[in-house]
Design a protein that fits this description.
single chain; 395 residues; alpha/beta; 6-stranded antiparallel sheet; 5-stranded parallel sheet
């Protein structure tokens, strides 16, 4: 095949992909998909808009190979590593110059806002300090179930101690856990990403540790591994990851937190940071937290003990016998006047974290709340995104 027929193909490096799903969420034309092993790009759909490149925390997404025949999805799903680059002949089309690539990224990003900035007052995050090839090794300092014993959801609070290894994290960041062993194909298990549930000074203040909130998933390799950890076990950890979903640090910041289940992890970190280090903050914390029942809601006991002067807590339970179903969007509508007042402030930041299905309900509620009070939510949301004041992490 002559050089003029070679094509450039967008590929994802499976060796460093952490399966955070950012690329698939970002792609506007559904060109990215995944199975239990790899995230892959459909050559026939990809338009090389590069919107997925900047949000990727590891750079696994930023690979462009010249190929004489595009790799199929089936072939990409089977990879452990990227295949070697083909060597084009002298008259083959060249890759864009670095400056050209940078310009394409900049235009695509600024036109769509896909690369969300962090809050302006957020502290500087450290990312990718530890990798699969060079992980940190943490000791399990504790593992506690934080839902009722009879609850269907088996959710654990795990504390990891890093000893003398530097592992700085901020509220809103995540870490990767590498389960030991191999899958059915004899390949090392993929790492899984978990949000940090403790503030930057650690689960135990001034100790080099952090905590996670992990739900056991039937058949899940990583979740069962983590939930079964015993005290003094060791764990391989990568990261930290995330440079946008970060807590604003200025004292006037109003923080609206909307979550379900283990999506509460970063908001526990936000709340603990405010409680420990920002008692003089004038900004408000407002939480909307959904679960099936109180017994299924992680941290229910400690959460109910937090004073109203610290956090405005609104719980939504959808499976309480004899009571109507309530979801977070229902509680948002009930607090519409207070929520709208916060949304009208330039000091308000909105964070949504939890199951992917909750996004639509929240957005519909915000449209309605704003419309009925003279605000244009689509325009306001776009402005908040541009200013780093609206962030979503769903899975």
């Amino acid at each position: 095949m002559n050089a003029t027929t070679m094509k450039r193909q967008h590929l994802i490096d499976p060796a460093i992909c952490i399966r955070c799903n950012t690329c698939e969420d970002t792609c506007p034309i559904d060109a990215i998909t995944h199975d239990a092993n790899n995230y892959v790009v459909d050559f026939d759909k990809c338009e090389e808009c590069r919107l997925c490149v900047s949000p990727c925390p590891t750079g696994a997404i930023d690979n462009w190979h010249l190929v004489s025949r595009p790799w199929t999805l089936e072939e990409q799903f089977s990879w452990d590593d990227l295949p070697p680059q083909e060597t084009p002949s002298a008259d083959a089309p060249a890759e864009p110059e670095p400056g050209e690539v940078a310009a394409i990224r900049e235009v695509a990003t600024s036109a769509t806002g896909s690369r969300l900035p962090p809050p302006f007052s957020a502290a500087h995050p450290y990312v990718n300090l530890y990798t699969r090839e060079r992980p940190a090794v943490a000791r399990v300092a504790g593992n506690y179930r934080i839902t009722d014993a009879a609850a269907e959801s088996d959710i654990h609070h795990i504390v990891l101690d890093f000893g003398h290894q530097a592992f700085p994290v901020l509220e809103g960041q995540s870490i990767g856990i590498i389960p030991p062993g191999e899958d059915a194909r004899g390949r090392p298990h993929m790492m899984r990403l978990y949000s940090v549930a403790s503030p930057r000074d650690g689960e135990r203040p001034d100790h080099n540790n952090l905590s996670l909130t992990v739900k056991r998933v039937a058949g899940g390799v990583a979740s069962n591994y983590v939930c079964d950890l015993k005290k003094d076990d060791t764990v391989q950890v990568t990261g930290p990851f995330g440079d946008a979903f970060l807590m604003p640090n200025h004292r006037e910041a109003n923080i609206v937190m909307i979550c379900t289940g283990t999506g509460a992890a970063p908001f526990r970190a936000f709340t603990e940071r405010r409680r420990r280090a920002m008692r003089d903050a004038t900004g408000k914390l407002m939480l909307f937290f959904g679960a099936r029942t109180a017994g299924e809601l992680p941290y229910f006991g400690p959460l109910t003990k937090l004073p109203a002067s610290l956090i405005d807590t609104n719980l939504a339970f959808s499976r309480v016998p004899g009571e109507p179903k309530h979801y977070v969007q229902d509680r948002m509508r009930q607090r519409a006047d207070d929520l709208a007042a916060l949304l009208a402030s330039e000091h308000t930041f909105v964070f949504i974290c939890g199951l992917k299905g909750m996004e639509q309900g929240c957005d519909e509620a915000l449209v309605e709340i704003c419309r009925d009070r003279g605000l244009d939510w689509p325009a306001l949301q776009a402005e908040m995104r541009r200013q780093g004041r609206f962030h979503v992490e769903t899975y």
